[in-house]
Amino acid sequence: MPSTTWADAQGLCAFVDASPSPFHVCATVSMLLTGNGFTELHETDSWPGEPGRYFLVRGGSLIAWSTEGVGRTAPFRIVGGHTDSPNLRVKQHPDLSSAGWQLVGLEPYGGAWLNSWLDRDLGISGRLSVRAGNTVQEKLVRVDEPILRVPQLAIHLSEDRKGVHLDPQRHLNGVWGVGTERRSFIDFVAERAEVPADAVLGWELMTHDLAPSALVGTEQDLVSAPRLDNQGTCYAGTQALLSAAERPGDQVPVLALFDHEEVGSMSDRGAFSDLLSTVLERIVLGRGGGREEFLQTMAGSICASGDMAHATHPNYPDRHEPAHHIAVNGGPVLKVNQNLRYATDAAGAGAFALACDQAGVPLQRYVHRADLPCGSTIGPITASRTGLSTVDVGAAQLGMHSSRELMGARDVRAYSDALAAFLTPTA
Ligand code: CO
Q1: How many domains, in total, are found in the chain?
Q2: Residue 162 and residue 277 in one domain
Q3: 308 alpha carbon to ligand 1 midpoint, in Å?
Q4: Cα 284 to Cα 75: distance, rounded to the nearest angstrom
Q5: Which of 213, 238, 283, 411 is 20 to 30 A off residue 163, Cα-Cα?
Q6: What is the pLDDT of residues 292-348, one digit of tens each?
Q7: 219 within a domain of the structure (yes/no)
């Protein structure tokens, strides 16, 4: 295995471990971008007219692009993805007690595979809104101590020893101590965030498994990690943008990472919002173009919606479309759904297949079983919000929406190489 492949899979592990929440994904990507000559812009400022490498963050979403060496009305090449992953999140009145235990009230975010959250040592991360005089400031927080655990029922106490049904209201609270003296969980988080407890006015706090990501298997050719859906794309997309910025072509490479995909994308910063189209229009306007140029530019642009794909599961091969085997370490995946759960059409498929060919990586083609409901991505949403031609792509994994997922180590580099080729098409 080439050393770059190891570095990339290990790079993904480090990226995921640094990024327990969507806000931390944005912080990690921001750090990688600033280290490579990108400047952060703010939506409330006017933007520079000169070409350059820029990005902006809106909550848990991030858009980055480079106009260096690219013409003023060059079309966009966009790689999209999402920063959020299903998990258990802290309620507004989290302090509970039951049977002599101190509990933290938790509830699922997105389609979390609830069984996978049991009996794990959990930390907390997210952001606080903190009062500073008469203003409110955002403060990122992460606690990597094993402070929480959602304990499983003993097998002897289940009715038939065949497993238990998990009720999201009753069975997912986390224990964090014993005794009758009720403690304030938010006060604890405030203390760890080094802010006064009474200054905390709001929060988005979520749990994360503390076991570090790892390369596993005797050949270490698999990545075992949380949040691969969809930090696998956030990492590969960031690497692709950094590579594309180094070799400008005749299109503007853009990375668009959205929060809230796992809950339907309808928010101020989700894929349903104005975020992408507003930023793209401001890129054109900032360089002296008008609305007419913007619309011309959009008509020639294309988006690859990156999200993880289902590898064929060895223990459940019958759950997969038999003529569409998907292998880990078999290369990026093109996702097609006739009912447009994925946005891919022939034009998008052609653009991504060409990129894979130019990158020298194999392409796999995924179709969901016709008798099972297919998941979706930001692809159909960005396509319908912007009119951009869109193709749904990904890298293969097992255990999607488990708190711990599995993908191929060699796919990390293959995926980012394909996305980099997509971002910089050669004429
Ligand atoms: Co996803």
Answers
A1: 2
A2: no
A3: 6
A4: 10
A5: 213
A6: 999 999 999 999 999 999 999 999 999 999 999 999 999 999 999 999 999 999 999
A7: no
